[in-house]
Design goal:
- The protein is an alpha+beta fold.
- The longest helix has 13 residues.
- The chain starts with a helix and ends with a strand.
């Protein structure tokens, strides 16, 4: 359920293992080349409730992705690997014993490669240049954060939070979803809203009741 970073990676893993996978996505499929790459088009077509999705108490607006590729289609491309402190917390407090070991390190490296994470072609805006200069003057440690994807071809390529026409941001379009499609056995149900997860007698999820808009 969902084509964001969670659902897309699960889809790829299952498809590559030989399973047939039905991927449910509430948004409609659109290729990167079809994206308008403007704030108006992005909020209308890529954000949940057109960017007016509030928390239950209405105190906060949540800019949640409602696009093919989920939040990975509208994020700012900044990629921060989990720190060792976080990995140890997952292992110690949440029962994910392998999180602080070599298996997690290998998984993070695989994601790094698949998303084309890099620092060499990151271009800082003036505000961040001044921030880096200030850190250097004060003796504070600082470094450029890695970004996913490849350098855009030009201004018409788009903005990271409003779509990228050439698909250079990688995201799920250029990584997990592409891997799933290449593996075969993928049934894409876009425009499909999951209403309820059904469970068997032992309480395990066994099916999804959904509405397909056609």
């Amino acid at each position: 359920v969902g084509s964001g970073p969670g659902g897309a990676v699960m889809t790829a893993e299952l498809a590559e293992a030989g399973f047939k996978v039905a991927l449910l996505e509430s948004a409609s499929w659109a290729s990167p080349q079809e994206q308008g790459c403007s704030e108006q088009d992005a909020f209308r077509n890529m954000y949940q409730e057109s960017g007016n999705f509030f928390t239950e108490d209405t105190n906060f607006v949540v800019l949640a992705g409602a696009a093919f590729g989920g939040g990975g289609a509208i994020n700012w491309n900044c990629c921060l690997p989990p720190t060792q402190q976080v990995l140890e917390e997952w292992s110690r407090d949440f029962g994910v014993e392998w999180a602080s070991g070599a298996e997690m390190a290998e998984s993070v490296e695989r994601v790094r490669e698949r998303l084309a994470m890099q620092k060499d072609r990151v271009r800082l805006n003036r505000a961040n240049e001044i921030l880096m200069q200030g850190c250097a003057s004060l003796g504070y440690p600082s470094e450029v954060a890695a970004q996913q994807g490849y350098e855009p071809r030009g201004p018409e390529a788009g903005w990271c939070s409003a779509g990228w026409k050439h698909g250079h941001r990688q995201g799920m379009h250029g990584s997990a979803l592409a891997d799933a499609a290449e593996a075969g056995g993928l049934l894409l149900l876009d425009g499909c809203t999951a209403n309820e997860v059904l469970r068997d007698a032992e309480g395990r999820a066994c099916a999804v009741r959904a509405t397909l808009r056609r």
